[in-house]
Specification:
With about 200 residues, the protein is mainly α. The protein has 6 helices and no strands. It has helices spanning about 5-10, 15-25, 30-35, 45-55, 55-65, 70-200.
């Protein structure tokens, strides 16, 4: 059998071993084993290769069954094909690693953003809580100030009323004393007058 012709068929269609393996859903080493004459593809795999390369199944079978010719051109083609496969595999690995690193970086950035959002949310809630406490404190302070003002006003009204009451009581006492004094003088004078009239009669 000849894996050389199968390899030429692959290269002619612009496929790498990795691409063929991916399209056929097989391992890349299996494609390498075909091309190195280690194993033969089965009937289903031949049909899949024919569909991939857009050729008849008989063409793939003929490429597999063709005799090898150990010439310099073949060796050069093999070396070039291997280099291309190695390069493609290396680039694919590096690209996959770069993509994986980028995805990891994006995930970490997303996690950091979520952490920052959560921190901002907690900080906002804390600020809102403090604002509510300030508003409640201001409201309580205003109520206390209003109550204090109302109490002071009531005390002042009570003091004024008490002063007016005391003033009226004092005035009433003074008037009463004056009235009592006037009555006492009159009662004293009257007897004196009566005595004088009796003395006149006796004379």
């Amino acid at each position: 059998m000849s894996g050389r012709h199968l390899k030429k068929l692959r290269i002619a269609n612009g496929f790498s071993q990795a691409q063929v393996a991916r399209e056929l859903h097989i391992d890349r080493t299996k494609v390498s084993r075909w091309e190195n004459d280690i194993v033969l593809p089965n009937e289903e795999e031949i049909k899949a290769l024919a569909r991939l390369f857009s050729v008849e199944s008989d063409s793939v079978k003929a490429a597999i069954k063709a005799n090898d010719t150990d010439d310099t051109s073949y060796r050069s083609d093999m070396i070039i094909a291997e280099k291309i496969d190695e390069l493609h595999l290396s680039v694919s690995n590096e690209l996959n690693a770069a993509i994986a690193n980028q995805e990891q970086s994006i995930r970490q950035q997303g996690e950091q953003i979520e952490i920052q959002k959560e921190s901002l949310k907690r900080f906002s809630e804390q600020l809102q809580g403090e604002q509510r406490l300030k508003e409640e404190y201001r409201k309580e302070l205003k109520e206390n100030r209003d109550n204090y003002t109302h109490q002071i006003r009531n005390i002042m009204v009570f003091v004024i009323i008490a002063i007016i009451f005391l003033a009226l009581m004092s005035f009433a006492i003074i008037v009463g004393l004056n009235y009592s004094g006037n009555n006492h003088e009159y009662s004293v004078v009257v007897p004196a007058v009566e005595i004088n009239e009796e003395e006149k009669q006796n004379e």
